[in-house]
Amino acid sequence: MEGLPHIAFFGAGSVGCYVGGTWQASGLPVSFIGRQTVKNDVDKNGMTLTDMDGVRLHLPPGSVDFGTSAKGLAKADVIALSVKSHDTAAAAREIAKHARPSATVISFQNGVSNVATLEKALPGFEVLQGMVPYNIAYMQGGRWHKGVAGELVAQATPLTRTIADKIGRRPGQLRLVEDVAGLAWGKLLINLNNPVNALSGKSLLEQLKDRDYRRVVAASQYETLKVLKLAGITPAKLGPIPPDLLPNAIAAPNIVFNNTLLKAQRIDPHARSSMADDLAAGKKTEIDYLNGEVVALALSMRRLTPINKAIVDLIKQAEAGVEKMWSGKELRDYVLADSGSPFA
Q1: Taking a C-beta distance cutoff of 8 angstroms, is the pair 5, 161 a contact?
Q2: Starting at the edge strand that comes first in sequence, how are the strands of the sheet with 66-67 ordered?
Q3: Residues 290, 197: contact at Cβ < 8 Å?
Q4: Fewer CB within 10 Å, N- or C-terminus of the chain?
């Protein structure tokens, strides 16, 4: 490992454990900083990392450097940040306090404003945009499972090139991009499915098979694209479908969607959105950093986004304890009624 950057995964939950574990298995020097409950699990069981293609990697107990204190950031050349977006400012304060100013921070978080928040709080640090396009489920007993196809993405620099080259085509592989301006918004467009999945109470696969749910997602994407156009923002193309065609593809009839896009996406039956997991655990969600970002951007231009606003309100109600699981038809009728959306 001589000459390779030491990478600390800060906020090592499901994403941090899976990605960090696969990177350690590839030969990169890795440490983890997360909750005591996760540390206890890893100390007892090690880390087992699986995916829908049958890959199974195991890091035995005692081989994983897992701590609970941000003091562990002091040895990091790279800080891979995967805390929830509402914890970004607090994480930045810990980085400023404990990390070397020469460290590079990669935001592997949802939302579009985290890099700006980190740059403001960490003058002198190099802050890079990253993206995690897949779902990771914690399966108990020190096991994390990748249930959706996709490649990790990060901004291209000599340092990230060193990391990507070391991983190669192994699990956790890292794709580098030069133009990151629209990367976060491109990811957010895809993540607009997260709250719909959370409100459905279903697995991702079950939810996406229901066209009514997909029509709600498509309508929120369509509304978002109109706002982005007004703002002069071009979201990045992150999959086989260009962003401007994504709503129509998502809302396609079941016979088309289920036999083309859904098959190509290769979603594991166990996969659920992280927002669904947060609601199930009684935690605060990232809705303000997904649909809420669309609402805020529109308001800054004195525009309204009633579809995204309705979804934000429903998730806020769920956070407050209103336990209602919506059928596809119920959600479509509620969110899209009188919206004028072509997907109503």
Answers
A1: no
A2: 66-67, 30-33, 7-10, 78-81, 104-107, 126-131, 152-155, 174-177
A3: no
A4: N
Tens-place pLDDT, residues 95-111: 999 999 999 999 999 99
**pTM tops 0.90:** no
Distance CA 118, CA 125 (A): 9
Where does the pLDDT of residue 2 fall: very low under 50, low under 70, confident under 90, or very high at 90 and above? low
Tokens 């072509």: give the residue.
342
Range name among 23-32, 88-97, 169-178, 260-269 with the lowest pLDDT average: 260-269
Specify the length of the chain in residues.
344
| CA Rg value for the chain | 20
- What is the distance of C-alpha 146 from the center of its chain? 12
Q: Which two tokens stand for residue 290?
A: 């997904």
Percentages helix, strand, coil for the chain, rounded to the nearest 5? 45, 15, 40
CA–CA distance, 342 with 248 (Å, rounded to integer)? 10
Could you identify the residue written with the tokens 């914690």?
Answer: 138
Residue 232's contacts (CB-CB under 8 Å, 6 or more residues apart) are: none
- Which tokens is 231 given? 């703002």
Give the ranges where 69-113 is alpha helix by DSSP (H).
Answer: 88-98
How many whole angstroms separate alpha carbon 207 and alpha carbon 275?
A: 14
d(C-alpha 245, C-alpha 190), whole Å: 12
The Cα–Cα gap between 140 and 288 comes to 29
Distance CA 234, CA 160 (A): 24
Q: How many CA atoms lie within 13 A of 97 on its CB side?
A: 10
Residue 191 has pLDDT above 90, yes or no: yes
User: Average model confidence (pLDDT) for the chain?
Assistant: 94
User: Residue 33 and residue 20: Cα distance in Å, rounded?
Assistant: 11
The predicted structure's pLDDT at residue 176: 94
Report the SS3 class of residue 80: strand
What whole-number distance in Å separates Cα of residue 122 and Cα of residue 54? 40
pLDDT at 181 > cutoff 80? no
3-state secondary structure at position 200: helix
